[in-house]
Amino acid sequence: MEYITLFCSALIAATLLPMGSEALLLLLHHQGLPAGWLLFSASSGNILGSCINYGLGHWARDYIESKYQTKRSWRSASNWFQKYGRWSLLFAWLPVVGDPLTLIAGISRINFWLFLLLVSIGKISRYGVLLYFSTSTFQ
Predict the structure, then answer these.
(1) CA–CA distances in Å: residue 38 to residues 17, 51, 54, 133, 138
(2) What is the pTM of this model?
(3) Distance between CA 123 and CA 4 in Å, rounded?
(4) C-beta separation of 123 from 50 below 8 A
(5) pLDDT tens digit string along 50-70?
(6) Which of 68, 133, 128 is nearest to 93 (CA)?
(7) Shortest CA distance to 53 belongs to which of 97, 83, 21, 87?
(8) Is the pLDDT assigned to residue 16 strictly greater than 70?
(9) Structural domain count, the chain
(10) Is residue 98 a contact partner of residue 119, using CB atoms and an 8 Å limit?
(11) Is 85 left (phi over 0), alpha (psi -120 to 50) or beta?
(12) Host domain of residue 106
């Protein structure tokens, strides 16, 4: 049940809703759950949440652009995306700009498989680093 809760927390955290999953990940790891399964659960949920954002951007481009383009996080993410292009998706895990980056990738209709690869690398790495440092801190 803990893995499902972590998956859902990570999924919601990757959408445009304000929530984090790192605290739950570290708590479950501190309670002794295996790091590999925690990494898989959190990463899978977070990546799926980013895919949802991509899909929203892809299919609701006009509505989203008109609704969000005045928001600060949207402008920041747009600037990142314009400056670094698809490589900015490696930083989709960042707070504030990460979620809008994945939405912008959908709006820009970046190749989905490249999107999935870059977002996965960034998100798995982020959770992996957290677990690595959590392991050395708690032992």
Answers:
(1) 22, 20, 24, 14, 16
(2) 0.84
(3) 18
(4) yes
(5) 999 999 999 988 887 777 767
(6) 128
(7) 97
(8) no
(9) 1
(10) no
(11) left
(12) 2-138
Q: What is the dihedral of CA 120, 123, 129, 130, to 10 degrees?
A: -140
Q: Which amino acid is at 137?
A: T
Which DSSP string corresponds to the chain? -HHHHHHHHHHHHHSSS----HHHHHHHHHTT--HHHHHHHHHHHHHHHHHHHHHHHHHSHHHHHHHHTTSHHHHHHHHHHHHHGGGGGGGTTSTTTHHHHHHHHHHTT--HHHHHHHHHHHHHHHHHHHHHHHHHHH-
Tokens representing 72? 């600060």
Share the mean pLDDT of the chain.
88
Q: Could you read off the pLDDT of 88-125 as tens digits, one per residue?
A: 999 999 887 888 889 889 988 999 999 999 999 999 99
User: How far apart, in whole angstroms, are the C-alpha atoms of residue 105 and residue 27?
Assistant: 32
Burial tier of 121 (Cβ tally within 10 Å: 0-12, 13-18, 19+): middle
